[in-house]
C-alpha cells in the first residue's frame, strides 16, 4: 500500500512538472559580426507595462546554434536574400526608368526607415506597412508593377531595409492618426480565434517561456522580421507568420496585406518599442 | 549559366605563421538535383556545383566533389594551416561548365 502510494505521488509530481516545464529565455547578448550589440531585452514600453515588465526578442528563446547563426552575417542564410535585394535596389525598373537608389541613395542610408514602420501615411490616410510603402514607391514613383505583398522580391527588399537598420531601436508611433488602427490591432491581439479559441496573448503574453510541445514560446515580438526559418529555409514575412499562428488556432485567417493584419502588425510592433531591429533574424 | 550564382568567402585578414585558421565558403546556387519533375511531369535537368577547390599559393588545400543530394546554397567550412603570407584561391565548378572564382589574401602577423 505504502509502495503504491509512493508510486502514485511520484506520478503526480511527474505530471505536475511536465505541465509547468519552464525554459527561461537565455541570458546572452547578441553582437552582430563582433561589432554591433543589439538590444534583445529591455523595459516594456508604457502601453504594455500592465501586461509585461520586460520585452524580449525571440532570439533569446532559440538554441545556441541558431543564436550563433544570426550573430554572424556570413553564417546567417538570410543575408543571401539581402544581397539579392541590394542588386534590385540599384536596378532601374518601370516606366520612369528609376531604381530605388536614384531617389533614396545607398540602401545603407535607409537605417531610419524600418524602426518606425508601420506608420501613418498622410496622402493615403491610412497606416502603411513597409511593404505598402515599397509598393507605393514602385507604382507611383517608378511606374513599375506592384510586388506581391508576401512574395519573394518584397520579402527580400524588407530584409535589406531591416538589415541596414540593425541596432536601431524599434519606435512606432501609436498616437495621433495611427491610434484608431492601433486600437483595432490591440483588439485583434486579445481576441480568441479558431476551434482552439486562442488569442495571441494566450501564448505570447500569458505563456512565453513555456514549452508548446517541442517549441519554446517567445513573446511573439516582430523586431527580427523578416525571419529566415530553418524549417522552410526561406525568409518569412510578418504577415505570413501571423497567418501561420492564426491557422494554428484552427481559424480561417486574414490575408497577408489585409487591413486587419496591418492593424495587428502596428500593435505587435509597438509591443517591441525599445528592442533593436534584428532582421533578417534566424529562427526555428 | 545558372542564375544568381554568387560566391562568398570568409578568411581572416591575418594569422600567425603555422596557425590553423577556419575558412568559410558559401555559394548561392539552386543545386537542382535532377530528380525533381516540373508541373508537366518532365524531369528538371540536373544543375549543380559538382566540384570545389581551394588552393594556397598554388598548393591544393582541399578538393571536394559535390553530389546532387547537397542542398541549395552549399556552405563549406574547413581549416587550413597558414605557413606564410599569401593568397587563397577558391574555385567552384558548375555542371554547365561555368567556373566561379574568388580569392583572399592573408598576411602574417
How many individual domains of chain A?
1
Q: Quick one: biggest sheet of chain B?
A: 5 strands, mixed
Radius of gyration of chain B: 16 Å
Remind me, CATH topology of chain A?
Answer: Cytochrome Bc1 Complex, Chain D, domain 2
- By helix and strand content of chain B, what is the structural category? mainly beta
Which CATH C-level class of chain B is it?
A: Mainly Beta
| Helix and strand pattern of chain B | EEEEEEEE
Subunit structure (chain A): Heterodimer of SoxA and SoxX.
EC number (chain A): 2.8.5.2
Cofactor (chain A): heme c; heme
GO molecular function (chain A): electron transfer activity; heme binding; metal ion binding; oxidoreductase activity, acting on a sulfur group of donors, cytochrome as acceptor; protein heterodimerization activity; thiosulfate-cyanide sulfurtransferase activity
Overall description:
The complex is a heterodimer of chains A (284) and B (109). Chain A has 284 residues and is α+β, with helices and mostly antiparallel strands. Chain A has one domain (30-282): Orthogonal Bundle (Cytochrome Bc1 Complex, Chain D, domain 2). Chain A contains ten helices and eleven strands. In chain A, helix 3 crosses helix 6 and helix 7 crosses helix 10. Chain B has one domain: Immunoglobulin-like, CATH 2.60.40. Chain B has no helices and eight strands. The model of chain B has no long low-confidence stretch (mean pLDDT 92). Chain A binds chain B through residues 74-75, 77, 80, 83-84, 233, and chain B through 4, 6, 8, 10, 24, 26, 28, 71-73.
Structure summarized in a few sentences:
Chain A: Belongs to the SoxA family. Chain A: One of its GO terms (cellular component) is periplasmic space. The complex is a heterodimer of chains A (284) and B (109). Chain A is of the alpha+beta class and 284 residues long.
Amino acid at each position: 500500500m505504502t509502495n503504491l502510494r509512493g508510486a502514485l505521488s511520484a506520478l503526480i509530481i511527474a505530471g505536475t512538472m511536465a505541465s509547468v516545464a519552464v525554459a527561461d529565455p537565455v541570458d546572452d547578448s547578441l553582437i552582430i559580426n563582433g561589432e554591433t550589440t543589439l538590444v534583445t531585452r529591455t523595459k516594456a514600453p508604457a502601453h504594455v507595462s500592465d501586461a509585461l515588465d520586460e520585452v524580449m526578442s525571440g532570439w533569446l528563446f532559440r538554441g545556441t546554434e541558431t543564436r550563433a547563426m544570426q550573430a554572424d552575417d556570413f553564417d546567417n542564410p538570410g543575408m543571401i536574400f539581402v544581397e539579392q535585394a541590394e542588386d534590385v535596389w540599384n536596378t532601374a525598373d518601370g516606366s520612369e526608368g528609376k531604381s530605388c537608389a536614384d531617389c533614396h541613395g545607398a540602401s545603407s542610408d535607409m537605417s531610419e526607415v524600418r524602426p518606425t514602420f508601420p506608420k501613418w501615411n498622410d496622402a493615403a490616410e491610412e497606416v502603411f506597412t513597409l511593404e505598402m510603402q515599397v509598393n507605393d514607391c514602385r507604382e507611383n514613383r517608378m511606374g513599375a508593377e506592384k510586388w506581391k505583398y508576401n512574395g519573394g522580391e518584397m520579402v527580400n527588399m524588407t530584409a535589406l531595409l531591416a538589415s541596414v537598420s540593425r541596432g536601431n531601436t524599434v519606435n512606432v508611433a501609436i498616437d495621433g492618426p495611427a491610434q484608431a488602427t492601433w486600437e483595432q490591432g490591440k483588439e485583434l491581439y486579445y481576441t480568441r480565434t479558431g476551434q482552439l479559441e486562442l488569442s495571441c496573448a494566450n501564448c505570447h503574453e500569458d505563456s512565453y517561456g513555456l514549452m508548446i510541445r517541442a517549441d519554446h514560446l517567445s513573446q511573439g515580438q516582430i523586431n527580427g522580421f523578416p525571419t529566415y526559418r530553418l524549417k522552410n529555409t526561406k525568409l518569412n514575412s510578418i504577415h505570413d507568420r501571423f497567418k501561420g499562428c492564426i491557422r494554428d488556432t484552427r481559424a480561417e485567417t486574414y490575408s497577408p496585406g489585409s487591413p486587419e493584419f496591418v492593424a495587428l502588425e502596428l500593435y505587435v510592433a509597438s509591443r517591441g518599442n525599445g528592442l533593436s531591429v534584428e532582421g533578417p533574424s534566424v529562427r526555428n | 549559366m545558372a542564375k544568381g550564382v554568387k560566391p562568398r568567402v570568409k578568411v581572416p585578414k591575418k594569422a600567425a605563421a603555422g596557425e590553423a585558421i577556419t575558412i568559410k565558403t558559401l555559394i548561392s546556387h539552386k543545386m537542382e538535383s535532377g530528380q525533381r519533375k516540373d508541373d508537366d511531369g518532365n524531369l528538371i535537368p540536373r544543375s549543380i556545383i559538382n566540384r570545389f577547390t581551394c588552393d594556397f599559393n598554388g598548393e591544393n588545400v582541399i578538393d571536394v566533389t559535390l553530389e546532387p543530394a547537397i542542398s541549395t546554397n552549399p556552405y563549406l567550412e574547413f581549416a587550413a594551416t597558414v605557413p606564410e603570407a599569401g593568397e587563397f584561391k577558391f574555385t567552384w565548378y558548375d555542371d554547365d561548365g561555368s567556373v566561379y572564382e574568388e580569392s583572399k589574401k592573408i598576411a602574417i602577423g
